[in-house]
Amino acid sequence: AQSVTQLDSQVPVFEEAPVELRCNYSSSVSVYLFWYVQYPNQGLQLLLKYLSGSTLVKGINGFEAEFNKSQTSFHLRKPSVHISDTAEYFCAKFTGNQFYFGTGTSLTVIP
Amino acid sequence: DTGVSQDPRHKITKRGQNVTFRCDPISEHNRLYWYRQTLGQGPEFLTYFQNEAQLEKSRLLSDRFSAERPKGSFSTLEIQRTEQGDSAMYLCASSLVRPDTQYFGPGTRLTVL
User: Higher confidence at residue A42 or residue B106?
Assistant: First the structure.
């Protein structure tokens, strides 16, 4: 079965500290991976995507993610978080004609 | 680019009633997706259109759910004989090229009493 697993449902982190949000996906012949962010009372917004090419992908707001095929992972990282990064983060996989989303990680940045 | 819009934003209905939601995608986008999102969960795929053709439907989509995209532009999602378990946020997204970025609308929050 196709799946995306986000192991951490909640991640508290102090302001200006680094953060990593973990994502693992079920392997497919072709896979395209995405990270979306959902701020409180707002719609989903794309942070970054991996379609092909370089395994290190840079996105908006200083976020980056690394595609690791052997570990079937696509972890999201930011070297220094801000209060404004507090939000729900979703990892997603596109295969066939469907997107599969993880259950989300709630990132809380503590002042 | 005015983004993806959805109407209504909120809908409260009684169990057994029918409801219909509308999604207007970004004008040049030929692909349109419907999702359902419940509290604490990620969006769950419901169905997918390419132009006016409905190409994929989730096995989770019961016979009470139907979606249309009559002219390849806006889409409607109808739920017949609503149940309390249908209470959720219904999201619409559109994209131009597979598997390019999906742009999400703000969602329609359905509450079934």
Answer: B106
